[in-house]
Design goal:
Chain lengths: 138, 297, 119
């Protein structure tokens, strides 16, 4: 999955937990502007909260970009962190797995709440999460 | 190829705008793309004129260096704007995406005919210009198609939701008591919609108890049982309570065999007992009329 | 910055969580509440989350923790005002918050707390 060529609607620098809250607000605003259904918005922004927090807590901070995908009637989010990457991705996605506090539940949950979800260790370090959420139920 | 900028097209559009417009509408009429049953001549002409003007603007400014056209570019904003204005109305009136696309494609003929006249002495340029114009109009048609399809899907979705509301009625049975009679089959999407209806009704009616009656649900398998339990859990999270009624002996057996753990959710075999239970929880009792003192009747 | 003020009413602590609350704020709130419960020997805590558009796993966990802490201090915790979309999302995340009591509104919660007093 790539968001190349897609219109970027917003960008958030993730450093502190205040930025995690900001990321929620920013994505919510973008989705509202696109006329998103409340439930779909709540689900996707919850997922955004999880991965943004992950980036700050376990990834040493990073950046979150929000994209508009009008052809799919969705929004997309790409979150890169500067950390050391996740050693065992499949395990990390299983609920309950945790290297500290919270990562396992968060990522697995985020996947369930989004339309598409991709996570990979970026070459050069860090983790990249790309996910999309539909604006309407169908 | 990329230094062909559709100059002749622009010349022709500038000099002959109204004639091209009329020819376009006639052409569309002939190819069946015009819907005179839905729009008056004046409306049709007005909309076509806006589209043509916006198209001209886009062609003038929006050709990319590689010779292609991307209607998502800023230069095509006017065209997108006009399209979105007329799309909703046309979809509501029943115009189909393919009819709209055919309308757009019909624009080729009137323009090409005039370009041929202008460039008759320069066959190479003529060919290049026709090909490029064709590409521009094709993109326009494709884009229009997409916009229409998207709008149509939204309309269908709205209609479906309205229908859903009719078929999953949440009823206020008593002050602060809601009931939701489920009928037929319960797939994932419907279950989610039902849950949403119920939860919103809780807010609206400030309900404390919800009776979900499954007497009319044909089969209760693990999936259905899970939907029910999740709904009950969501209701509880909001601060209300659920009673699932209509559990027949057969369903009870199935649920036990499937290992479904109802946990804290109340269940009753009939709506009657569920109602009595619900009323008790909101502090209400049903008494025979005789037992109520005359003064209060 | 105080994201949530705590109000004592009839031996019950009330708190309303604002939508822009951060993780740190919420942990601070947990600490503050725990202390206040002890200080005034509160019999209940009511947390109003009606302003929250999003409740994720972190907040869910803190709510559960707070309930456990309060219970050890002999106080019952009620979560009130959860929005429908939030409830549905939590359920989808598998967070049923079984230990948390819930009520529709602040008033409902206070009634329940009063009703379940000793004797």
């Amino acid at each position: 999955m790539t968001f190349e060529g897609c219109r970027k609607a917003a960008s958030v620098d993730l450093r502190t937990d205040r930025d995690v809250a900001m990321a929620r607000g920013v994505v919510a605003k973008v989705m509202k502007g696109e006329g998103a259904n409340t439930l779909m918005q709540t689900r996707f922004v919850t997922a955004v909260s999880e991965i943004a927090r992950n980036a700050v807590k376990h990834g040493g901070g990073g950046r979150l970009d929000v994209f508009l995908l009008p052809r799919d009637r969705s929004v997309g989010v790409e979150c890169r962190d500067r950390g050391t990457g996740i050693a065992n991705l499949p395990e990390a996605m299983t609920d309950g797995f945790s290297t500290g506090d919270s990562m396992g539940r968060g990522l697995g949950g985020a996947q369930r709440l989004t339309s598409t979800f991709e996570i990979e260790n970026a070459p050069g370090g860090g983790t990249v999460v790309r996910m999309t959420g539909k604006l309407q139920r169908r | 190829m990329s230094d062909v900028k559709l100059e002749t097209t622009l010349e022709v559009l500038k000099a002959d705008f109204n004639d091209i417009l009329s020819d376009w509408i006639d052409e569309a009429d002939e190819s069946g793309a015009k819907r005179s049953d839905l729009f008056s001549e004046a409306e049709e002409r007005e909309q076509a004129a806006s589209l043509l003007m916006a198209f001209r603007k886009g062609v003038k400014e929006g050709q990319r260096d590689d010779g292609d056209f991307d209607l998502e570019d800023d230069y095509w904003a006017d065209l997108r704007g006009v399209l979105s204005e007329i799309t909703n109305e046309r979809v509501e009136r029943g115009v189909r995406p393919e009819e709209m696309a055919a309308l757009v494609l019909a624009l080729k003929t009137p323009i090409i005919e005039r370009i041929k006249v202008k460039l008759c002495k320069e066959p190479d340029r003529l060919v290049d210009e026709i090909m490029l114009l064709s590409k521009a109009i094709d993109r326009f048609a494709l884009y229009t198609n997409e916009v229409f399809i998207a709008e149509r899907e939204q309309v269908i979705e709205r209609q479906r939701e309205e229908m859903m509301e009719l078929s999953t009625p949440v009823v206020e049975l008593w002050d602060r008591v809601l009931t939701l009679p489920l009928i037929g089959t319960l797939d994932s999407l419907r279950a989610q919609e039902v849950m949403e209806s119920l939860l919103q009704a809780i807010v609206e009616y400030k309900a404390e108890v919800c009776i979900i009656d499954i007497t009319g649900v044909r089969t209760v398998d693990t999936q259905v049982a899970q939907h029910l339990l999740r709904t009950a859990a969501a209701v509880r999270l909001m601060g209300a309570n659920c009673i699932i009624s209509g559990i027949s002996p057969k369903i009870a057996q199935t649920m036990v065999q499937l290992g479904v753990d109802v946990g804290e959710v109340s269940t009753r075999s009939s709506i009657r007992s569920a109602l009595k239970d619900a009323l008790e929880r909101v502090g209400v009792a049903i008494l025979p009329v005789d037992s109520v003192p005359a003064a209060t009747k | 910055m105080r994201a949530a003020a705590i109000y004592p009413v009839e031996g019950v602590l009330l708190v309303s969580i604002q939508d822009d609350i951060t993780d740190t704020d919420i942990l601070d709130l947990q600490d503050a509440l725990s202390e206040r419960i002890g200080e005034m020997d509160a019999k209940g805590v009511v947390i109003d989350i009606s302003a929250l558009e999003i409740v994720d796993t972190f907040v869910g966990r803190v709510l559960a923790q707070l309930t456990a802490i309060a219970r050890l201090l002999d106080a019952e915790t009620y979560v009130v005002g959860m929005r429908p979309a939030v409830a549905m999302t939590l359920v989808e995340l598998g967070m049923y918050l079984p230990e948390n009591r819930t009520a529709l509104t602040l008033t409902h919660a206070l009634q329940k707390i009063r009703g379940s007093g000793p004797g």
